[in-house]
């Protein structure tokens, strides 16, 4: 019996109790500490576990020591030779930004997180940071929503440039080695912190020369006075307390605890049913079910659920740079059940406005029979850098679990309605546009091109079309106008090579993104391709693969449907054999299964 759980459990005002309930079940049935059993929390970030080990939360000291435990406090103070170790928990994330908003915090250093996008009530977070007298941000990307507000910007090395260790969710510590030299002036976060600490007067304490020295000190603290008779703690990697740079470089993946008794690590904890409590016994924690803090109402009758989509990572600062990943779901979408959509007059691919008591956003409608009636799902990924109104965080209610501080990001009461627009457009261009005047825009990086989804309420289609078109100058122009229908199409070429194309429509559909993007890879457009451009659809025998489903092998939905039908394919394995799809990272397999069962096939 293994219970695997993640943010559907944690991100809740009763998240800690939900975790306790799961652990209680495992303890009560003794399904723990043996092969093939146990509660298994899928913390999501590559180093979520490592962050806790080094004390990266407001309520903990390093090495799993508790801030408010006097013995732990004393122990860390003696280890570091300091009489100034904090003795009570600091502010958790939501409280912290609240304190910034009230002017209680005047200097803030944000490192490796993008709270203007990822926090609940995100517009208020942005406002708070705008008013913060001293905001310092360390990031490896120059133009995130949070970096944009910083007074002091510190360029940090990112994955593939930095060097250290990460711990995954089975307690396995792995070396992470740099693959590339740092870009520009980027420095490792540990180096930046050490330099600031030294300037604050702690030259000797922060004289680290490399990450190996920091790791050795961390390992020493984890083992300091750590034995069953004293303050016995699970996190103990004292086996590495004397590690030198060379041994650190050659470190093999290992599961903690790593001690003198267990120098090769520990595969399994609790096999002897002894736990890290005063009595050595496990403790069940009595919990009571609690509904979400904010109930639904007539004004806000839908539950807004938020989370991830397959091909983006968090606030897209890095995954949004990869054009292959941007073709799967290029715009923020709201998933809604067919009956809810029909009742509210929302059609597939139309634009909708979502509102909560805290904020609002715009998203493309995606009608899904698998969505629960009364529930809406919106991805967390879109930012102010990539969209005009795609930040779901602006709507999310700022309530949290009282113990963990984890926000209730899966349950916010909202309403949804048709967003009436006069026109919508797709613009693809080799050059990026700085200013977009329309109310709805989403910016998406393609292969050597920028792709913009646009829509407006104020201007007419014709005004908008010409205004957009006038951003460009090309050697040759192609135009097609149908003012009766309100369709405006433009393309610009240098020689026979495409510079930009723009499709504006009043009520019609937008052309296929991947087909159009593909035309930019051609050095010379044929006469037929130029005609197709103006008709907004590919020639019959031209490849229109449709929306990307398999990003590893670049296989589109239309290709898949066609082949599944033609060869009467019934299994994912067979799709893999014929088209490669699904045989790379495998994350498109659920979609392949859905396609085989769908009506279009
Ligand atoms: N592609 C991609 N993968 C990622 C990430 C990413 O950004 N992109 N991020 C990583 C990180 S940091 C994390 S934390 C993980 C998160 O991984 P998950 O937690 O698996 O992903 P989420 O999309 O946040 O939401 C989890 C699911 O919880 C469901 N849910 C909502 N409310 C409830 C409820 O009340 N009860 C239950 N049982 N379920 C509910 C949602 O419908 C959703 O399907 O993903 C990691 N993996
Ligand atoms: N509505 C809603 N909100 C959510 C969630 C949800 O499901 N729904 N999920 C929550 C969860 S589980 C998570 S984990 C968070 C994620 O939210 P964030 O942590 O805010 O999101 P990231 O985009 O991962 O932000 C990391 C930032 O650090 C930068 N960075 C990357 N590597 C380095 C480095 O080595 N050093 C430095 N200094 N910077 C670096 C990146 O460029 C990026 O700007 O979002 C949370 N917010
Ligand atoms: Mo996460």
Please give a structural write-up.
With 601 residues, the chain is of the alpha+beta class. Among the domains are: 113 residues, no CATH class; 49 residues, Arc Repressor Mutant, subunit A (Orthogonal Bundle), CATH 1.10.10.1100. The chain is 24% helix and 20% strand. It is built from 17 helices and 22 strands. Strands 10-12-11-14-9-13 form a 6-stranded mixed beta sheet. Strands 16-17-15-20-19-18 form a 6-stranded antiparallel beta sheet, sandwiched between helices. A 3-stranded parallel beta sheet has the order 3-4-5, with no helix packed on it. A hairpin with a 4-residue loop joins β18 and β19. α5 packs across α7. It is globular. The two termini are 38 Å apart. The model has no long low-confidence stretch (mean pLDDT 93). Bound molecules: ligand MGD (2 copies) and molybdenum atom. The site of molybdenum atom has 2 residues, from loops.
Short description:
By secondary structure, this protein is α+β, with helices and mostly antiparallel strands. It contains 17 helices and 22 strands.
- What is the CA-based Rg, rounded? 27 Å
Low-confidence stretches: none
Beta strand %: 15-25%
Distinct compounds present: ligand MGD, molybdenum atom
Q: Helical stretch count? A: 17
Q: Give, in spatial order, the strands making up the sheet with the most strands.
A: 10-12-11-14-9-13
Ends distance: 38 Å
Look at the helices and sheets and give the structural class. alpha+beta
Q: What sort of overall outline do the alpha carbons produce when their principal axes are compared?
A: globular
The counted number of beta strands is 22
Helix content range of the residues, please? 10-25%
Largest sheet: 6 strands, mixed
**Average pLDDT reading:** 93
């Amino acid at each position: 019996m293994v219970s695997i759980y993640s943010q559907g459990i944690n991100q809740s005002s009763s998240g800690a109790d939900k975790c306790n309930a799961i652990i209680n079940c495992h303890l009560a049935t003794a399904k723990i500490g043996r092969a093939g059993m146990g509660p298994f929390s899928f913390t999501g970030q590559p180093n979520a576990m490592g962050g806790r080990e080094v004390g990266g939360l407001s309520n903990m000291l390093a090495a799993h020591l508790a801030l408010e435990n006097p013995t732990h406090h004393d122990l860390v103070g003696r280890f570091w030779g300091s009489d100034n170790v904090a003795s009570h928990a600091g502010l958790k994330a939501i409280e912290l930004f609240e304190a910034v908003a009230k002017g209680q915090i005047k200097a803030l250093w944000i490192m490796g997180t993008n709270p203007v996008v990822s926090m609940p009530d995100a517009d208020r977070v942005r406002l708070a940071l705008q008013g913060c007298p001293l905001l310092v941000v360390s990031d490896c990307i120059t133009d995130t929503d949070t970096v944009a507000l910083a007074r002091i910007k510190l360029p940090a090395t990112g994955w593939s440039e930095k060097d250290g260790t990460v711990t995954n969710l089975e307690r396995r510590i792995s070396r992470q080695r740099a693959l590339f030299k740092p870009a520009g002036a980027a420095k490792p976060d540990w180096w930046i912190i050490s330099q600031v600490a030294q300037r604050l007067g702690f030259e000797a304490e922060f004289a680290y020369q490399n990450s190996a020295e920091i790791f050795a000190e961390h390992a020493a603290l984890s083992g300091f006075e750590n034995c069953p008779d004293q303050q016995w703690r699970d996190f103990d990697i004292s086996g590495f307390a004397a590690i030198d740079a060379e041994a650190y470089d050659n470190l093999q993946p290992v599961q903690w605890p790593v001690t003198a008794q267990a120098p090769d690590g520990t595969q399994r904890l609790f096999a002897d049913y002894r736990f890290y409590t005063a009595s050595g016994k496990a403790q069940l924690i009595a919990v009571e079910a609690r509904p979400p803090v904010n109930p639904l109402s007539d004004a806000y009758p839908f539950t807004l659920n938020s989370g991830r989509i397959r091909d983006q990572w968090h606030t897209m600062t890095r995954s949004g740079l990869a054009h292959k990943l941007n073709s799967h779901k290029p715009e923020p979408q709201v998933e809604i059940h067919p009956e809810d959509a029909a009742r509210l007059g929302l059609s597939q691919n139309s634009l909708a406005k979502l509102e909560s008591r805290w904020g609002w956003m715009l998203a493309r409608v995606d009608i899904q029979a698998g969505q629960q009636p009364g529930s809406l799902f919106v991805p967390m990924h879109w930012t102010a850098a990539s969209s005009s109104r795609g930040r779901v965080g602006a709507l999310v209610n700022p309530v949290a679990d009282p113990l963990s501080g984890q926000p209730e990001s899966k349950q916010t009461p909202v309403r949804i309605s048709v967003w009436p627009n006069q026109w919508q457009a797709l613009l693809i261009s080799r050059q990026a546009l700085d200013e977009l005047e329309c109310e709805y825009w989403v910016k998406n990086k393609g292969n050597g091109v920028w792709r913009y989804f646009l829509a407006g309420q104020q201007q007419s289609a014709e005004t908008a079309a010409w205004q957009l078109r006038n951003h460009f100058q090309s050697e040759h122009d192609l135009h097609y106008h149908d003012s009766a229908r309100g369709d405006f199409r433009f393309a610009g070429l240098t020689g026979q090579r495409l510079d930009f194309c723009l499709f504006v429509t009043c009520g019609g559909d937008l052309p296929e993104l991947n087909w159009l993007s593909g035309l930019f890879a051609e050095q010379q457009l044929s006469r037929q391709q130029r005609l197709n451009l103006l008709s907004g659809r590919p020639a019959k025998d031209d490849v229109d693969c449709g929306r990307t489903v398999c990003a590893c092998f670049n296989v589109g939905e239309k290709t898949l449907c066609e082949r599944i039908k033609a060869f009467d394919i019934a299994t994912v394995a067979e799709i893999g054999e014929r088209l490669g799809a699904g045989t790379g990272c495998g994350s498109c397999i659920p979609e392949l299964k859905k396609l085989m069962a769908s009506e279009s096939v």
